Amino acid sequence: MPRSVNHVASRNRRKKIMSLTRGNFGGRANVWTVAKNTWEKGLQYAYRDRRNKKRNFRALWIQRINAAARLEGLSYSQLMGALKKAGIVINRKVLADLAVNQPKAFQAIVASAKKSVG
Predict the structure, then answer these.
(1) How far is residue 109's CA from residue 96's CA, in Å, rounded to a whole number?
(2) pLDDT in tens, 52-109
(3) How far apart are CA 77 and CA 3, in angstroms?
(4) 60-84 burial string, b = 16+ CB within 10 Å, else e?
(5) How far is it, in rounded angstroms, from Cα 31 to Cα 34?
(6) Whole-angstrom Cα distance, residue 86 to residue 41?
(7) For the chain, how big is the Rg over CA atoms in Å?
(8) Local confidence band at 51 (pLDDT 50, 70, 90 cut-offs)
(9) Rounded mean pLDDT of the chain?
(10) Which of 10, 71, 86, 118 sits most deeply, having the most CB atoms within 10 A of its CB?
(11) What pLDDT was estimated at residue 99?
(12) What is the average pLDDT across 19-48?
């Protein structure tokens, strides 16, 4: 009796991965083993970079806050310490957005932080 291998399912599985690697260069798009490795590695990069994206955005926010704080005569760390002492709870994302898009509001926050510290 011949061996049953369910070729329909295995072919569909391969076709799905081959369609996901369409657009890659050379064998990475049309050789099954290379395409499968490319697809798996892409998933690893995606997993890693979803976490790195958060890290990169936080670094960007800190740079923007620092640049705006220095225009007000404070460093980033001095500003964050003053905000904490003043009891002003505002996250870095919002603070960076204010620094870029609403400089007057940022200046008001910095002034209130400076005033409460002394």
Answers:
(1) 12
(2) 999 999 999 999 999 999 999 999 999 999 999 999 999 999 999 999 999 999 999 9
(3) 70
(4) ebeebbbebbeebebebebbbebbe
(5) 6
(6) 48
(7) 26
(8) very high
(9) 95
(10) 86
(11) 97
(12) 96
Residue 37 to residues 10, 11, 17, 34, 90: CA-CA distances in angstroms?
17, 17, 10, 5, 44
In terms of Cα–Cα distance, which of 47, 100, 44 is closest to 69?
100
| pTM assigned to the model | 0.81
The angle at the Cα of 111, spanning 109 to 112, to the nearest 5 degrees, equals 65
The answer on pLDDT for 2 being more than 90 is: no
Q: Residue 93: what are its φ and ψ, rounded to 5°?
A: -65, -50
The residues spanned by each domain of the chain are: 7-117
Q: State both tokens at 93.
A: 């994302």
Mean pLDDT across 23-38: 96
Instruction: Give the C-alpha separation, 9 to 111, whole Å.
Output: 66
